[in-house]
Design brief:
The chain has 3 helices and 4 strands; from the N terminus they run E-E-E-H-H-H-E. It is an alpha+beta fold. The strands form 2 sheets. Strands 1-2 form a two-stranded antiparallel ribbon. A two-stranded antiparallel ribbon has the order 3-4.
Length: about 110
């Protein structure tokens, strides 16, 4: 927003069909130069890794931002498991960076 990175409030859930749903709370799209979703699937099987053809991994500055996000900070389990949340984590999984249209919220 106005040249500054901000984290928008959101909530996520899995619907009855098994699809991941993300709700981004209200924001003013006129103030947004670019919008993207950082997504790190957290799965019970630590040997299962996510690969999404055509989507880039998050950049290092995105990783720094994630480390300070409440979801990383709130869970000792996640911090202990994922390097993205804490350098001592043992899983190298990185979040996917999904570009979104600022006006519709749909993936580009």
């Amino acid at each position: 927003v106005n040249g500054e990175d901000i984290v928008l409030n959101s909530t996520t859930w899995v619907d009855g069909a098994g699809s991941l749903m993300v709700k981004i709370f209200e924001y003013n799209p006129r103030n947004v130069q670019s919008l993207h979703l950082l997504l790190l699937p957290i799965l019970p099987d630590q040997d299962f890794h996510i690969f999404a053809d055509g989507l880039p991994d998050a950049a290092e500055r995105d990783i720094v931002e994630m480390r300070h996000h409440p979801r990383c900070l709130a869970s000792p389990h996640i911090r202990g498991r994922y390097k993205v949340c804490n350098d001592t984590g043992y899983l190298e999984d990185r979040p996917l960076k999904i570009p979104l249209d600022a006006w519709t919220g749909h993936p580009q």
